[in-house]
Write a structure and sequence with these properties.
By secondary structure, this protein is mainly α. It is built from 3 helices and no strands. About 0% of the residues are buried.
Length: about 110
Amino acid sequence: MVVEEISKRKRSRSFSIGSCKKDDLQTKYWSLLFENLRRSVDEIYSVCESGECVVECKEIMALLETYTNDFKSLIKHLQSKKDFDSCHILKRHNRPAWDFKKPAPVTL
């Protein structure tokens, strides 16, 4: 999905010179990151395949699942933030609140 957006950005250029340079740099950076990720995953796959490493394959799968869950949580957080930010100020009856766990008082 993100890769498709990157290729769309490459095709459609902004007429504004400043934003065009920024978009080009961001596109190049994303391309570099994705290429590094692909190369790393391919290399890990090859090592596991050639070494017939079932345990390592399971470790990699667990790590990738953790990263997947992290990104799913990030998406939910960003959507919540966007929803809150787009809500009209007068309609905001409840502000977001975070509860911090306080240590229980020590009695002697």
